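Run log // design_07
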C-alpha cells in the first residue's frame, strides 16, 4: 500500500483574491483536504469566540503541526475591489453573479427564478476598502513570519486562471497530481 505524501499548506490572500477557487483546484488535482479560515472565522464570530490572524496565531499553529508551505495570493487591491463590488447574489440559492465576467441575463434579476439579486454588505465599496486595509495591516507581519522561515511562496497576478498554472507547477514539485491522467490543462 502506497501512502500519499502529506503536505500542510496555508493559502493566504486578501478577501476576494481567489483562495476558494485555488483551494478547489488543489483538492481536484492533489487530493488534499481543505479547511477555510474564512469559514472558521465566520463560525467563531457567530459563537463570539474570535479567530485572530496574527503572528501569535501562526506561532500557535506551528506548535500544533508543521506547516510545509504558505501560498500567498498577491492580487492588487484595485483588482479585488472591482471583483467584489461587482458581485451580486441570489440569497435563496446562493448563486453568485459578477457584473464584469458572469452577469445575469437581466440586470439585478436571478437567471433561473427571476427574483431580485442582492449585494452583500461585505461587497459594498466602502466595506471592501475597509476589509482590504485591515487585511494589509493584520497579515503583513504574518507573511513576514513565514518568509523568515523560508515557507512563503508568493504568486502575483490579477486573474486566478493566470496565477493557477504557477501554483500548480510549484505544488507538482511537492505532490503527485491525482486527477485525470493526461489532462492537457490543469483547471
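design_07 sequence
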Amino acid at each position: 500500500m502506497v501512502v500519499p505524501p502529506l503536505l500542510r499548506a496555508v493559502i493566504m490572500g486578501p478577501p476576494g483574491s481567489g483562495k476558494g477557487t485555488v483551494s478547489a483546484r488543489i483538492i481536484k488535482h492533489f487530493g488534499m483536504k481543505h479547511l477555510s479560515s474564512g469559514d472558521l472565522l465566520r463560525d467563531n464570530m457567530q459563537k463570539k469566540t474570535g479567530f485572530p490572524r496574527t503572528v501569535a496565531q501562526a506561532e500557535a499553529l506551528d506548535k500544533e503541526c508543521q506547516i510545509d508551505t504558505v501560498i500567498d495570493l498577491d492580487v492588487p487591491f484595485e483588482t479585488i475591489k472591482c471583483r467584489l463590488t461587482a458581485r451580486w447574489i441570489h440569497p435563496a440559492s446562493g448563486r453568485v453573479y459578477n457584473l464584469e465576467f458572469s452577469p445575469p441575463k437581466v440586470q439585478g434579476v436571478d437567471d433561473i427564478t427571476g427574483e431580485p439579486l442582492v449585494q452583500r454588505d461585505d461587497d459594498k465599496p466602502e466595506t471592501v476598502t475597509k476589509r482590504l486595509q485591515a487585511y494589509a495591516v493584520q497579515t503583513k507581519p504574518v507573511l513576514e513570519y513565514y518568509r523568515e522561515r523560508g515557507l512563503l511562496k508568493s504568486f502575483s497576478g490579477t486573474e486566478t486562471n493566470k496565477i493557477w498554472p504557477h501554483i500548480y507547477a510549484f505544488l507538482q514539485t511537492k505532490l503527485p497530481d491525482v486527477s485525470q491522467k493526461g489532462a492537457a490543462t490543469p483547471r
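The chain has a mean pLDDT of 85.
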